[in-house]
Input
Amino acid sequence: MKTTVLIELGKDGSFGLHTPDLENIIIGNGATLVEAKADFDSCLNDMKASYIEDGEQLPEELKNLEFEYKYDTASALEEFSFINLAAFSKIVGINDTLMRRYKKGEYISRAQAQRIQDGINQLGRKMAAFTMV
Output
């Protein structure tokens, strides 16, 4: 079953993941995105183990799970932190200072978020087409 995992930066600077479409909500939290993803995986494994230990049937929604990750802007910029933010800001046409504020979790309009999304997608296509000799 394919389901959505929302990834968001919290007001306290920690990252959170959750599955809003499942009855058995899977969550993960951490000071970093890596920690939050590890906690998410641990939560899923613990949930499955709990069903087995209790002798209960694993719900269908937890079998053969595939995740589609959806990031808020701050989490996306953290996921791709290897990208030089100043250079990327120029590519997408967003002020560098404003981009850094978005990475810290400040409010972003849907249009600005779409510009960043489009820039990341464009960069991905460019990298996928890249060939070394």
